[in-house]
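Example record

Each entry pairs one chain with its bound ligand, 2-acetamido-2-deoxy-beta-D-glucopyranose.
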Amino acid sequence: MFSSSIISYVIAIIAFLLHTSAYGQDRTINAEINPGCNNCSLESTLVYIRAEGQTDTIHQIYEYNDLGDKGRMDEKSWIHSQSLKRVTWELKEQIITEKEAMVRLHGTMHHNRSRDIIDVKLDLLPYKDYATELPHLIHTANSTLVDISLVNLTTSRYYNSSRFALHLVLVSTDPATDTMHNVMRKSLDDEHTPGVFEIIEIKTPASLSSEMGGFVQFRPVGYTQHERNVGSSTIAHVSDFNRTSLPDWSTLKTFYKGFDEGNLLVQDMVVCFGEPGDGFYKRYNYTAWSYTIGYGAPPMEGFSLFVIVIISVGLGVPVLLALSGVLYAVRRKYRHNPPTRLINED
Ligand SMILES: *[C@@H]1O[C@H](CO)[C@@H](O)[C@H](O)[C@H]1NC(C)=O
Ligand SMILES: *[C@@H]1O[C@H](CO)[C@@H](O)[C@H](O)[C@H]1NC(C)=O
Ligand SMILES: *[C@@H]1O[C@H](CO)[C@@H](O)[C@H](O)[C@H]1NC(C)=O
Ligand SMILES: *[C@@H]1O[C@H](CO)[C@@H](O)[C@H](O)[C@H]1NC(C)=O
Ligand SMILES: *[C@@H]1O[C@H](CO)[C@@H](O)[C@H](O)[C@H]1NC(C)=O
Ligand SMILES: *[C@@H]1O[C@H](CO)[C@@H](O)[C@H](O)[C@H]1NC(C)=O
Ligand SMILES: *[C@@H]1O[C@H](CO)[C@@H](O)[C@H](O)[C@H]1NC(C)=O
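Structure tokens for the complex follow.
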């Protein structure tokens, strides 16, 4: 009896795999760096990927003095914002093929402080899978993986408890009176991101109502060292949304040129990193965070074969035992009081 139930699980698993591979259909992408610009230096990088639209940019980096050692930024924190306007961006690495579009940029804050590095990696892989690096976010043909690392940033000499935070501006063509949504989901297993069960999704109104808008998806986790593992992970805290306007001199301004700015939904939010007693930013001089940004419905994680087998065994055995108990009871019952109707039908 047990062996026949194993077969039915195998069928279920195969059906499940077929189902996911339907989502994982490869799509060729068409990416270009600095299209139409034949006089662009490596200092100006614009990646154009057909059918992809960015809906946010990092606008500023905040440095805050976390005197209470909470990890979070609050009104009482002394906040110093560093605009990224004067950052010099340099293209460090690129892969532009039909199967992947990846660029890695190094931003340096000041010409005379080339030690301070903001490393930004954008990676578009046009099929559904888990990213190779922790926190193993899911990428699809409709989303781009973004990794941001703040490396060796010089902290303010007036702050003794510095931490860095990222200020993101979110823009969509939804009504300006509407609001972005922060949806926190719990995943049933932490197989891909040990110890982290939450998934945070920032959805535009259209993404929430009709799965047509944009989204940002991430796990509430950051990393304090280049080698990402459980030991180097820290908490990423997300603020509420605040209404704002399009930042001047930004690609967003260019991107939304044809729109009436008063009709755009523009909100910002802050993501900060750390937990009490972790020694602040200066302990490692490193903070990294990853998210995916895309359009449509954010991808859902499926159960892997391993988890399915575990769940099947965990649930299957008690169900089988209960079932055999029921059968046994029924058999006993029937043996003692054979129903006359069944006998007549024989
Ligand atoms: C290319 O850029 C350089 C400096 O940015 C400028 O001096 C030169 O005129 C440009 N050439 C063309 C063909 O636009
Ligand atoms: C960097 O150079 C600018 C002027 O070029 C100067 O004002 C600033 O103080 C310098 N910063 C450091 C940290 O040396
Ligand atoms: C990507 O977007 C297209 C068009 O909105 C949709 O048909 C497709 O199912 C999406 N793919 C994934 C993997 O979300
Ligand atoms: C940051 O500083 C450390 C120690 O000075 C150095 O080993 C490391 O290479 C620096 N990182 C980068 C990306 O420059
Ligand atoms: C930082 O400075 C404040 C006073 O400005 C002091 O109360 C606090 O103990 C200092 N914190 C650390 C970690 O040195
Ligand atoms: C939201 O914006 C208001 C007005 O600009 C400002 O006073 C407030 O501190 C902002 N809140 C956050 C969480 O940034
Ligand atoms: C981090 O950088 C500061 C200088 O900005 C330095 O004093 C400190 O030793 C560095 N920490 C590590 C772990 O490299």
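Residues 13-299 form one domain.
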